[in-house]
Amino acid sequence: MQKGAIRVQTENIFPIIKKFLYSDHEIFIRELVSNAVDATQKLKTLASVGEFKGELGELEITVAIDKEKKTLTISDRGVGMTAGEVDKYINQLAFSGAEEFLNKYKGQGDGTNIIGHFGLGFYAGFMVSNEVEIITQSWQNAPAVRWVCDGSPEYTLEETTRADRGTDIVLHINEESEEFLEPSRLRGMLEKFCKFLPIPIKFEGQQINNPHPAWTKKPSELTDEDYINFYRELYPFGEPPLFWIHLNVDYPFNLTGILYFPKITKSYEIQKDKINLYSNQVYVTDQVNDIVPEFLMLLHGVIDSPDIPLNVSRSYLQGDPNVKKINAHITKKVADKLEEMFRNDRKAFEEKWEHIGLFVKYGMMTDDKFLEKANKFHLFPGVNGSTFYTLEEYRTSAAGLQTNHEGKLIILYATAPVQQDAYIQAAHAKGYIVVKLDTMVDAAFINQAEQKWENVQFTRVDADIADNLIDPIEKTGSVLLADQETALKTLFEEQVKPAHIKVDLKGLSTDAEPVIVTRPEFMRRMKDMAAAGGGGMSWYANMPDEVNMTINANHPIYQDILAQSDAGKKEKLVKNLADLALLSQGLLTGADLTAFVHRSVELLHQHK
Q1: Residue positions forming the annotated binding site for ATP
Q2: Domain 2-207, second-level architecture
Q3: Closest by alpha carbon to 359, among 335, 383, 394?
Q4: Annotated binding residues, as ranges?
Q5: I want to staple 144 with a disulfide (CB 3.0 to 4.6 A). Which of 137, 471, 531, 578 is the partner?
Q6: pTM of the model
């Protein structure tokens, strides 16, 4: 029997490893099962080149719990190790790797993704164990050996017997980690970390992994059904995806994966962390913020790349050239796929727009390269719901009537077509085209688009009277005499008390409403953004709405009101017209609304 102390300068490296990796003890299972997979893959390689001539037999990895002995054992039928290899790889190399690791990365991040890349994977077992045993038989007809260590630098190494080639790692689980002896807890961890490892993994007689997940196959080998089935494997309770993108790059970096576009509606709780990162089929993390562009964090699926440097801190990851290239590649693939769908079947693309639009707008706001491509397939849905316009199509259709005196195209939009119907109808009567912008990102999107698109301005359809939406007309003639205009304006000003409501009198068409309430675009937009949490603008949200009340002096009703001899009734009629207009904008509430209802009943009763 060989006894010895592991050659290491750093005093008591085990407690340091335990402390450094404290944040996620679960990863011991990933590291040890991954090592077993590597050992098995090595044997397959040796067999394929003719070096190993024996029977491969059933190549699988088993994970077993013995609650009485408090052990957790991971067994493989891979290459195994000789006594010399145990001494080299376990006693020497791993520990020099440990020192290098500690010196280089002390105090950076939590280290959960770093361990295996320094040959420390095996030592993750000490995070949960009082003692670790290795029982191993090399494929090269050497005696089997048993190595035992209790987490101090002292170990023993002796000959033993094993029925077959391969390795058992036996963890004697410590008191604080006994949860890992519960079958349901261990099964959950195996399904999280080992679900797609390339060698069958058995636990309690069942195989827990799919060794050939869809992303490892060529797109030409897969049907739509295969992609949908794989989505179900990833998200058993998810709704079927809209479509997907298969990533398959081997130069200048290695990247495979499948990204799915989920159905997104306005009420959707945005869920990030739905993309899982793998490295050669080993689960790494669901925190992919630097690898996947921000706007695509809403996607679901899998990315697998051995070229993403997992052995360094997050700050380094952000500046890594491979990560930047992968990020740019994913953006390009998504833009190309959307453009291809738009070109090949526009109708189907329009039908999906309600769900796709959020990604597209988010991408256009945050990524200029994506914006460039997306300008071709970004759509404005018309308020009728059946017509869609690209920016160029809208410009072609609307420019004649909707270009203002500065040469800017005015895009008229509605955020709530049902409530804003009267305004939409007034705009349509003038031949204007009104589009629907009613998603959670539209307020921010409009502001960005005005900066990035040339000569374009957005105006909500209720921001002014229809005559003023494109170019404000200062004064238009009315049929009333000057003293009648003054009397009417005074009547309204007396009945409409709030200071933030500005009363104005204009001579509009006799078909237009008698009173039109509008909310100027700039202030309303500021308030909307502030309400949505626009940084230091919260004070805007608490300001009263700036409201313009336009009295259409040409409406025939005013001839009747001005001729009315009962002053009290005249005031009630004016107040009711003002309240009706405020109601149409959702600005009449509480006691004012109650008073309006009572007054309306009273006027109807008097009329009878």
Answers
A1: 31, 35, 76, 81, 96-97, 167, 314
A2: 2-Layer Sandwich (3.30)
A3: 335
A4: 31, 35, 76, 81, 96-97, 167, 314
A5: 137
A6: 0.75
